[in-house]
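Mods, move this if it's the wrong board.
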Amino acid sequence: MIRYGTLRSNLVGIEAVLADGTILNDMSTIRKDNSGYDLKQLFVGSEGTLGIITEAAIKCPIIPHQRFLAAVTVNDFSKCV
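Not the wrong board. Structure tokens:
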């Protein structure tokens, strides 16, 4: 759903196998890491050219059970405040 963002924004960690067989494990619990390139985003954006993602941790938002809607009408725009 568009409401909850893209897969790239909800991706928490990945494990991938590179072309030479090396396993890259980036399943850390840190949401923001400024120490270098964000390899998770690079692998998702590369569409399999850098390696094959074998495991992924995705943040799943809680879907609300109820929705509320309010309809408010006024006679003129000056009364909106």
